Fold each of these.
Amino acid sequence: MPELRKDPITGRWVIFSTDRASRPQSMGEGKAPESQRAEDCPFCEGNEGKTPPEIYSVREWGSATNGPKWRVRVVPNKYPALRIEGELEKRGEGIYDRMNGVGAHEVFIEGPRHLTTPAGLSPSLLLDAAAAHRERMRDLRRDRRFAYGLLFKNVGRTAGASLPHNHSQLIATPVVPVLVQHEMDGAKRFFDYRGRCLFCDMVQQEISDKERLVEAGDRFVAFVPYAARFPYETWILPRRHASHFEELEDEDLAAYAAILGSCLRRLEKALGNPPYNTMLHSGPWVGGALESYHWHLEVIPRVTTAAGFEWGSGFYINPVLPELAAVELRKVVP
């Protein structure tokens, strides 16, 4: 059973999961040709028996569960960071707090073909994947053991991907991650002082200034943050206030999938298919809608490496001004 332990200084929880050491590491660099099909890839169509049984899928009408003719499959992670069975059993040891590593860890296999990045997916497949993300988050939030769900994608070995076939992951945790809590705390301070959502103000200012804007649609906007931590870091936010991704309506979901695909194509073309991560920060599953918090997707290219100063200080050193990064991304035809 995995275990969570809390750092009493920072309040950060650490997951200890020894099963993760057994996961595969056969991940190559670069983008594979779209026609390539890895015969031994457990995520390719026809290899459904190499994964745990699917939890959810988008597939052709009448096709058999755990068989071919699917578009998106959701399966439990074979090497989960947290396990869905059991109770938390929170307990203390002097000044230290710990609990059982109970949660959920799911894998979204996005497309039956052996594509290595999401930028190659069709608009309809991107939409199917986004719909699967929404449905699984809606389902898991009903479990009262879980406080938060983090949806993320690792593209490329140096970004943490262990298998090349395009996929994303969702981990449901019994606590709110400390980074999300810091965002929420800062947004709440702004809201208490000004009576407005900080993220909504940010969206309006970026649209008005245009300097850091990458793309803007009727429902969503993408920009390089004013204090971007990494070169070409890009955020995608809904223009209308919303604290929880899983509450998106179908019309908004389609617009989100469209701008996501466009931004990822810009990024891959501008930087030559770099490794990168995407992370969805949404409202916690405990409590209702939040006036002060606004869900958003963060896209982080791995073109620089954090070293001793960054780890020791919490500062980030970004060699590319956000305004210049936005110019380069806007130049690209997605």
Note: The chain has two domains: 3-15+35-175, 179-331.
Amino acid sequence: MKVLVSLNIPEVGIELLKQAGLEVEVWREVRPMTAEELVETCQDVQALITTGSNKINGDFLQKCSHLKVISQFGAGYDNIDVAAASQLGIVVGNAPDAMSDATADIAFTLMLTASRKICYLHKSIISGNWGYFRPRAHLGLELKRKTLGVFGLGRIGFEMAKRCHGAYLMDIIYCSRTSKVEAEQQLGARKVGFDELLTNSDVLTVHCALNNDTRGLFNRDTFEKMKSSALFINTSRGGVHNQHDLYQALVSGTIWGAGLDVTDPEPMSPEDPLLSLENVAITPHIGSATVEARDEMSRLAATNIIQFYRGEQVDNRVN
């Protein structure tokens, strides 16, 4: 079986594929493949390792219906039309949990960075605007014993909650489809409804999938229900928040600040007005960008293909 790796992933996964006896073709360019290049190159392969930059939609799947298995280099797979793949009998797998610690670290970092206006103040030094000591200028927020609200208490949300509870004795509330017994026992976490999450959180951190229920969920109406002193943190998908509404909420004082590792659209325009705000910290979707996380993502993405090739159960199958 021949595998196309549509991006230059760490070698650990590529070597695993080769050791399993698979023929491997790797896209080594820095830029992602175009839709046309992806379709053309897939014509003589049976397996594909892909990422969020590739749109595996109905049109692609019809043109590449001969594929047997698609493996996502990442936990999220909203770029893949899983229902259409299922109808065509194509197995879809992902790489969950590989980046839980790394992404939780980014969420925690964004919380700290936004709360102390670090990105803005770093830029002020570069622009020569350190200036004089002013007792009431650039004041941030302290986090000790505040309330962390977690929307989507999965693996990453749980790791973020552990960091906040351990470092700052933060109370944990969460909104999730199911009760999270481990978090309740270890952290004293309390399950609440969505409106209570909005109104009671000092820091609201988002760790959910992007789907029809969550797209644009954090918008003008939801921001208006939050505390005026609240921080909004999103490391899930940019489409979960309405970016225009977020900007308006920040400049109007509806909420206090924001930390984003994801934006809508991506890449973000350097002219986006969010980048000029003092109380905002933004990173370019680097939640999983550690050596350890990316190596594990590579290993898991390859393992999905290898398990399918050997006729075994694909442990991380999503359809």
Note: The chain has a mean pLDDT of 97.
Amino acid sequence: MNHDAFIGYLRNRLTKPLPGWDYQKRMSPIIAGSRTNEPRNIPQDAHQTGVAALLFPGEFGSELIFTIRSQFVSHHKGQISFPGGRAETHESIIETALRETHEELGIDQSSINVIGKLSSLYVPPSHSLMHVIVGELNQTPVFQPSLQEVEEVFSVSLHALAFQHEIIHLPKMRAQDFEVLAPCWPIHPKNHLWGATAMCVSELIGLYKDFMHENE
């Protein structure tokens, strides 16, 4: 599908009320039969974090950038994620996402066109409220990943995520005596896309399917 057409659609759609949990919940992990990220009162002391869902034009339409977190970071070691991190004092969420993207991937902040934001999500394991900034790059970026934070960088087309990669469920041990049933996308041989990042991607994919339906 045409990348520019989807970006135009997304730029307008992100100014309107978003589906949030309705689209996120299909990728929410399950403990003892309950979704772990169901809407709840967000703790006032939750850490504010900003991450960047970055899109660029590829052979099959819009490509979405992911990282595999290194073993040196504090939380979510080895997991597939978006570039991002905790907000600093007096820093906006957009500034956080762009700064962290530069620090982790070496992408010049001025090359990122900010389109808008997806729904925020509280992440219990890191006690953080994750804000997802959607940005566009006009061409395939040249990555200079930080070895301290990033083990690998890769991208997947939104079209493949929406229509080709089947969601599977795997049990994952997250803590002693707790077995988590995790919906995930098997998009990489080292790990699957699951957890909070997958939930945010699920909303983006839902918007992509809405776009496709409107353009049938």
Note: The chain has a mean pLDDT of 90.
